Amino acid sequence: MCTLAVIAAPGCSSSSESAAGREGATEAEPEGAGGAEEAAPEETAPAEAASATRMEEGFFMAEGAPDPRACSADADCVGDTVPAASGCCQAHHPIRAHSRAYTSWVGTWRAAHCDGVTCPPPPAPSQPDECSFTVRCEAGQCRDACP
Description:
- This protein has 147 residues and is of the alpha+beta class.
- It has 2 helices and 8 strands, in the order ββαββββαββ.
- β3 (53-56) and β4 form a beta hairpin.
- The longest helix is centred in the C-terminal third of the chain and has 14 residues, at 100-113.
- The protein is globular, with a radius of gyration of 20 Å.
């Protein structure tokens, strides 16, 4: 099994390692089973929260959500990650230009819908393009400086 830091990288294998060769494993045991080598848990979300949500142009949306890109001034915009499909956990890539009003709404929505949700650990960090953090309000929409 290939590893990245302390987190097992799913789908990696080594020709010198097999399920039967790992201590305590059997040939019938699926790859990644057993002990500390298990993959990180996936996000768990309450069913009632997920049923009323959707993704629109890469943004998590639910009833009452503001337009994620709407703005009237540059100060209304931020470049950051946005929620994953369930809304309770962050998508770690890509960085998106969006409004501070949307960020505030996400916080309020999470407080009401995400109690008890377990989010997977973030992946090893990588440096996003600098242009992702240079945001402005252009024609009423938050935009970044990336081509």
